[in-house]
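haha ok so turns out i had the wrong file open the whole time. this is the CORRECT one, sorry everyone. sequence first:
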Amino acid sequence: MNVVLSAIIPTYNQARFLPESIGSVLAQSLEEVEAIVVNDGSNDDTAAVLAEYQDHPKARVIHQDNRGTAAARNIAIAAAQGHYIAMLDGDDRWDPRKAEKQVGFMEAHPEIDLSYSWCREVDVDGKPNGIFHCAGEMRPSFDSFFLSNFTHTTSVVMFRRALVDELGGFKASLPIASDHEMWLRIAARRENNVACLGEVLTDYRIWTGQKSYDWRRMLNGWNAMMAELKSLYPGPYARLETKARALNRKHLAFNAMRSGDDEGARQCLAEALTASPRTVFSNRGWLTMAAIATSALPGGLSGQLLRLVAHRRKKNWCTT
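then structure:
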């Protein structure tokens, strides 16, 4: 089979979601697609689940000791045969036409090195919760990516295989934010080489065991990435770091709140406001920030604000 697209799926202790994730790749309308799954030292039933795909003609399974997501992605890319590489986390899933539409877009736009789609949230059982994540910029700049990784999840991203060989893969020294750092290296190659498809083609699963709920771990990863960016791009770093830090802490405040860590959410919000109050209040999400700020007060005001936030997020088709 002439493989056009290789879907790389790093996984760690996501056995219960893997059949959906892998199945969504194998069911793509574009037939020239392969799934490459790397079991990154899981200690649940991942090995048993992957045994079902060991002899599948369109799936490849690799087992390794736990080395982190970035290393697992690099292993998968090294084994990939496709002209394009697409990302998929082991707990997410694709729309059946994602590969066809995104490959078609990149074939029609040779100037684009990286593309990504919109996504919607689903719960632990795979049911949509009414929340969508839709990036506002269709042709984001390097500066935009420096400020925020607004692809939201790696599972929406596709790029050209030749580009990975040129850039040397994901940096295993950045186990958390290696994807964000990679998107920046791609965006730095030339102007207008990143594009968004204005269509929801990925389901992003929300569950208590996912890494994004661990806001402290995400914070450490972001700090490590910024230290790397300071040496790689000193000019943009000096110009954008303060605003980027405010946006990062604002995002982490929301994640901490969703995980039930109100104190952590207030800490992140305070750091965001210290970095740049204007940035915090000039972007969407002020109601959420108000709910976090009032979470320590009696009277149920915070809960009322959160219910209003939930109503507005489900009422508006796109949220960020």
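The beta strands are 5-11, 33-40, 59-64, 84-87, 93-94, 114-122, 128-133, 157-160, 194-205.
again sry for the mixup
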